[in-house]
Amino acid sequence: MGLEQYKGDMDMCCRCSTCKFVPMQQVSGFQYANVCPSISKYDFHSYSGGGRLNIGASMLKNGFNYTHKLLDIVYNCQMCGACGVSCNYAMDMEVMAPITEFRIKCVKDGKTHPALDKIIAGLRKNDSMVPVTGKRGDWAAGLNLKDATKEKVDVLYYVGCLTSYDKKLQKLARSTAKILQKAGVDFGIAGDAETSSGGAAYEMGYEQDALDQAKKTMALIKQTGVKTVVASGAEDYQAIKVLYDKFKLKGDLKVLHIAQYIPQLIKEGKLEPKKNLELAVTYHDPCHLGRLGEPWVHWEGKKVPGDRFVFDPPKVYRRGTHGIYQQPRDVLKSIPGVKLTEMPRNKEYAWCCGAGGGVCDSNPEFAQWTAKERIEEAESTGAEALVTACPKCEKTFSAAIEANGSRLKVYDIVELVEQAIE
Amino acid sequence: MTLSKEVYAEFEDVVGPEFICNDPAIMPSYYATEFAAVILPENTAQVQAIVKLCNKHKVSFRPVCTGWTGKFQAGVVLLDLRRMNRIIEINEKNMYAVVEPYVITAQLQAELMKRGLHLNVKGAGTNCSAMLRGHGHLDQSTGGDDRNHLAIEWVTPAGNIVRSGSLGSSDEWFCGDGPGPSLRSILTSATPPGVTPGVFTRAAMKIYHWPGPTKFPIVGNSPNYALSEIPANFMTRYYSFPTMEKMWQAELKIGESEISFELMGFNVAMVAANITTSNEEEEAAFKRLSKEVQGPGFLIILAGNSAADFEYKKRVLNHIVNAAGGKSLASLEDPRTEGILMCQCIRISASIRETFRPGGAFSSIPVMGQRDLTIKWAIGAGKAKEPLIEKGLIVDDGGASFGWGVEQGHLGKTEIFCKFDPQNAVAKQAVQAWHDEQSARAFKERYFALLSPGQPEEIGKALSNYHVWWNKLQKELDPNRVSPEGGALV
Ligand code: SF4
Ligand code: SF4
C-alpha cells in the first residue's frame, strides 16, 4: 500500500505550521521555539512536516515529479519525529508514517542519495552501516564475556554497528558490559555474529534492506534462545522494539534500552551508584529512545462513514507520549553529585542531534548545524556536560563541540554509571 | 505565469539564490497553486525591493506568514515571510512590543509572561503571527482588532514604506494615531493583508498586565499536558444558562463589571474538543457534556491581582451568574480538567483541536457587531445547520454558534462553524450553500453585512458606498494592481 494508505492523513493537513514548533504550551520564549531542524535550516515551507505531507498528497494525485529540489527536500530530514509530536498534540493524523513512506518510494523509484547508496552497499557487503575495521566483537577483548551464540544466557546485549566498530565509541560497549557484569546479569554478546539491526537503513528509505536485516537479527536472537535483549544504541533499540514489531517479527521478545534497564537493576539492589561525580549535566533525549521509541501499535480498521474523522475500531496514534523519558533521568538523579538541569526542549519535543535519517552521511554540514544548536542550548543551562544515551548522538555532538570550540563535555549515560559504580 | 530568466534573476539579486525558488516540487506545499516563485525576504528593504520589482514587471504578489489554508491565483509571487522573525523590542514601560511578521504569538506571549505582561491572543491560535489583527478569547480584558495595533511599518503595493502613527514622526512605536499619520481606516489588517494590500513588515502590539506565573507548571507528555497546580488567584469555569438571552445578559454584566480575564462563549462541542486528545474522546465528551448543560454557555477565566481582588471577582461573578440562572458545569471543576482548559485557552487559544481535527476542514461565518443582533442571526444560522447534521454532512456540534463580548460587551464577536470532511464533495457543496445563504440572510434581514473581497454592490450601497471609496483608495495605493486581496492568511 505504501504512501497511498496515508492519503487521508496527508489530506488532513491544515497547514497550521504547528509542526515547525515545539507544542505551543511548551514554547518558553523567543529562543528554542523551533522543533524541526529541516525547516529551521532551509526555511521554505516544503521542508516542514506539513510541507512534506502536502507535497505527498499532491504527487499521489498528480504524479511524481522527481526534481533535484524534491530530492533535496526528501533527504534533508532527520526523520526525527518532532513534527509528528507537535501535530498530534491537536490533530488525529499520521505524520511520520507518510514522510517515511515517501522516502521509501523515492528509493524504490531509484531516486536515491549517492552517499546513502554507499552506506547501503556497505551494509549488503559487510553487514554493517559503518566502515568495518577489524572484527565486530574486537571491543570485548579481555572482558571475558559470554558468547550468546554458544552459551545459554538470560540476556543478549545487542551492541550495534557504530559502537562495535568505531574506535572512539567502543568504550560505550565496554562500559555497558561492565555495568551488566557488576549487576550480576547473566548476559552474553553475539560478537562477530551480530548483524546490523537495519533501523537506520529503514529511515534512509531502504525498506527491503531493513527487512532483510530484521530477519537476520531476529534469527540470531532466536538462535540464542534469550527472552530479553538489551541495546545500548537508541537506534538499534528502536529498530528491534518498534520496527521489528511493525514488521511482525518481534513476537514476545522483551527489548530494553540500557538506560531503562539500569534503574531496574538499581531498584533490585543489584547496582548502587555510590561515587560522587560532582557534575552539572543536562540530558539530551535521543529521538529513537524518546518519541520514536514508543511501542508500535497494530491497528487495522476503517473510517466510519460520515462527518467525523473517526475509525472503527478507534485508531491509536503514536503521539510520542510513551517514549522512554523518565528512566534515564532517574539514572542521572541516582548518581551522587550529578545535578541535572533540563534544556528548554526536552522529552517528546527535544531537538534532534542532527544525525538521523542518514543526514550525518548525506549532508554532514546540516547534521553539524543541527548539533551546534543543541550544544548552545545545552550550554544555556549552565551544564558542564551533555549526557545522552545513543552513540550516534555522542559522535555528532563531539564533532560539533570540537568544531565550535565549546567547553562542554559529552557523555553517554553508561559512562557516568560505570564511573559511579566503580 | 512564469517569470522569464531575466526577471527571476532580478528577484534573485534581492534575496540571494538560496531564498527564491520556482521548482514545481515546492508549489504543492504552498497551497495547490503554481506560483511564479516563492521568495523569502529577510527584512523591510528586501520586501520593498521585491514589491518594486513586482510593479516594474506587473507581477502580482501575496505575502504569507505561518499559513493556514488559502486560495491564490496562479502566477503570483509568494512572499513567505518566515525569515522576518525578530522581536524588535519589548517596551515594558510603555506597554508595547514590536515584532516582525513571523514571530508567533506563543513566542511573544512566553517572553511577556516572564515580564508579568501579556497580549491579546487571536482566535487563530498562538501558532500564528503575533502581529495578526483580530479577535480572541481575551477580548474582554485586552480589546480586539485595531485596539492592539499601535505604530505600523507598511510596504504599500507601490513599494513605498509608510510608517504610521508615532513612527511617522519619530523612532517611537507607542501610538498608532500620531504624532504622525493615522491610517487606522486603511490599515485594517495585519500581515499578510486580508484587506489592506501590501505587506506589514513590523508592527507594535499593545501589551497588558499579566497577574499569572512566569510560566505554567505543565506536567505530562504531549498530548496529555496538565497543570501540576492551578496558579494562585486563577479560576476557570463553564456556565450554562436556561436561554441565550440570559447568557447574553450575564456576559454583558461581566463585561460591565470588568472582572473577567478571558470570556469565551464556547459551545460545549468546543469545550469537548479542547479537553480531549482525539476525535473519539471528543465525540464521547460532547455527548456527555451536552446532557450536563441546561442551554448555551460560556467559559470564563478569572485572574486576580491579589487574593482579595480574586475573591471580589469571584463574588461578582457568582452574583451575576446566579441572577441569570447560570449553572457551572460540574465535571469541568475537576482541577485537572480545569487546568487543561485554562492552559489550552490561554497558551494555545484552542483553535486546531476545535476546528480542523474533527473533520479536516471548517467553514466559518465570523462577524463583529452588536452582540444581541448577531446572536439572533446566529440562532437562525445554527438552525439551518441542523439538516446538514442530520444527513451526516457536517460534524454534530448541536448546531451551536459561539462568540464573546469585547471589552464592556455590547459589541462583540459572533461566529458559527460547519466542520466537515473536505474530501466529501457533497458535504463541501452543502456547506458552501449554507455559507452563502446565511451570509445573504444576514444582510437581507439587516443583522449585519459581511464586507469581503468582491462584495456585491448592494452591500456597498447600504454602507455609504463604502465599496466605491475602497476601490478608489485601492487604485491610488496599488496603481498597477499587483497586490490582490484575499482571505486573511494567518
Ligand atoms: S502536519 Fe500537522 S501541524 Fe503540520 S501543518 Fe499539517 S496539520 Fe499542521
Ligand atoms: S522528521 Fe524531523 S527533520 Fe523531518 S520534517 Fe519532521 S521535524 Fe523536521
What value does the average pLDDT of chain A take?
A: 97
The biggest beta sheet of chain A reads: 5 strands, parallel
Number of helical stretches of at least 4 residues of chain B: 14
Strand order of the largest sheet of chain A: 1-3-2-4-5
Please identify the top-level CATH class of the largest domain in chain B.
Alpha Beta
The largest β sheet of chain B comes out as: 5 strands, antiparallel
What CATH architecture label of the largest domain in chain B applies?
3-Layer(aba) Sandwich
Remind me, CATH topology of one domain in chain A? Rossmann fold
CATH class of one domain in chain A, named Alpha Beta
**Class from secondary-structure proportions of chain A:** alpha/beta
Strand content of chain A: 5-15%
Radius of gyration of chain B: 23 Å
Largest interface: A-B, 63 and 72 residues
Helix content of chain B: 25-40%
Helical percentage of chain A:
40-55%
Record field, number of beta strands of chain B: 20
How far apart are the first and last residues' alpha carbons of chain B, in Å? Answer: 26 Å
Secondary-structure blueprint of this entry?
The complex is a heterodimer of chains A (422) and B (490).
Chain A: H1 7-12, H2 37-42, H3 49-62, H4 68-75, H5 82-90, H6 96-108, H7 114-126, E1 146-147, E2 155-158, H8 161-165, H9 170-182, E3 187-189, H10 199-204, H11 207-224, E4 228-231, H12 234-246, E5 254-257, H13 258-267, E6 279-283, E7 302-303, E8 311-312, H14 326-334, E9 338-340, H15 359-362, H16 364-380, E10 385-388, H17 391-404, E11 409-412, H18 413-421
Parallel strand pairs in A: 1-3, 2-3, 2-4, 4-5, 6-9, 6-10, 10-11
Antiparallel strand pairs in A: 7-8
Helix pairs in contact in A: 3-6, 9-18, 13-14, 16-17
Chain B: H1 5-15, E1 20-21, E2 37-39, H2 44-57, E3 61-64, E4 77-80, E5 87-91, E6 96-99, H3 105-114, E7 117-118, H4 139-142, E8 149-155, E9 161-163, E10 199-206, E11 208-209, E12 218-219, E13 226-227, E14 234-240, H5 244-257, E15 262-264, H6 268-275, H7 279-292, E16 297-303, H8 307-323, E17 327-328, H9 335-348, H10 352-355, E18 361-370, H11 371-390, E19 402-405, E20 411-420, H12 425-444, H13 457-462, H14 466-477
Parallel strand pairs in B: 2-4, 3-4
Antiparallel strand pairs in B: 1-2, 5-6, 6-10, 7-11, 8-9, 8-10, 12-13, 14-16, 14-17, 15-16, 18-20, 19-20
Helix pairs in contact in B: 1-2, 5-8, 6-7, 11-12
The structure holds iron/sulfur cluster (2 copies).
